[in-house]
């Protein structure tokens, strides 16, 4: 693979070729968490945060099944029933269709390639085949990076955002004297209750705008 092909470049190329509104690559950082490796627009990041906040969605389903999940219309009864929390929030954010491709080597979960549209429309069969080809290329790029090659630094801001969530989780764990998993659940619940991105809640904790207490949540 040519050395000038990077994860962000391949992501943008896929968006243009597939005729979707945006795309993102997510990396698994645990059974219930994920980090944005790169994204072509803010919506891709918003969708990732929504899934972490509500604990459901196409990405989680694709990871559990180990197979693609294609959603042509979040307003359809099928998808509204499948993801009762995530589907209406995705539509509210401006996304009506989402297509998720797991990036795997055997049983190893390397990452997720996610595409979205702002209008309801299925991914045509010929474009789905092209999306799978892009997925194979993305998997090769990610494996090459893990083997020692470096990226171009274009997604540093997104990485910092994920780092802040990790930092806030540690702080909440200390404040509540609970495990990291329970602390992360408390952050997620707070974000969902306030209808705010998880990253904003984490930022408030890190800068000590509020702290969690056993008596009544944040103070």
From TrEMBL:
Organism ancestry: Bacteria, Bacillati, Actinomycetota, Actinomycetes, Pseudonocardiales
Record has Transcription as a keyword: yes
Protein name listed in UniProt: GAF domain-containing protein
ANTAR domain: residues covered: 139-206
Source species: Amycolatopsis rhabdoformis
Gene3D superfamilies referenced in this protein's UniProt entry, alphabetically: 3.30.450.40, Winged helix-like DNA-binding domain superfamily/Winged helix DNA-binding domain
Pfam families, alphabetized: ANTAR
Record key words, sorted: Transcription, Transcription regulation
Coiled-coil segments: none
